[in-house]
Amino acid sequence: MITLLLPCDGSTNALLAVRHAIDRFHRGDVQLVHLLNVQPPFSAYVARYVSRELRADFHREDAAKALTEARQLLDATGIAYRVHVEVGDKARCIADAARLLRCDRIVIGTARKSVLVRAVENSLTNRLLDHCSVPIEVIVGAPAGVLARVGIPASLGVGMALLWVSGP
């Protein structure tokens, strides 16, 4: 029986990972699930003018919204789970949580994207592979749309063209 860490942002791909964990629970593989939502920190400028309590309330509310559907899925199956909310860099927070919670595995959902897009956008999956000391199970969702697959290379081309046109 294993303990899973499920990073979840409420996206379709993250919910695929939740459904995968539910399937593993039904097979008798999973004992406990840690459901984790990582919120991005406020900029230093915003943090100067917004109290710590208001920032914490905002992060809690956003996390609750992001985890609503995942919690409903887990509640419907009776899986034992705990909810965690962190604020910071997603990859580091996920890796630290897996270590601190003594998880046996991280299950993460991701979209299918080209290698170039993953390299340029600094994908969470790649960063997790660099930071984690526990195995990561990647559940791949539907292929990304054409725009997402070629959007970054196309935008790089447009940016280069604008630089060339603007000249010295």
UniProtKB/TrEMBL annotation:
Domain of life: Bacteria
A UniProt-annotated Pfam family: Usp
UspA domain mapped to chain residues: 4-136
PANTHER family in alphabetical order: ADENINE NUCLEOTIDE ALPHA HYDROLASES-LIKE SUPERFAMILY PROTEIN, USPA DOMAIN-CONTAINING PROTEIN
Residue ranges of the TM segments: none
Protein name: Nucleotide-binding universal stress UspA family protein
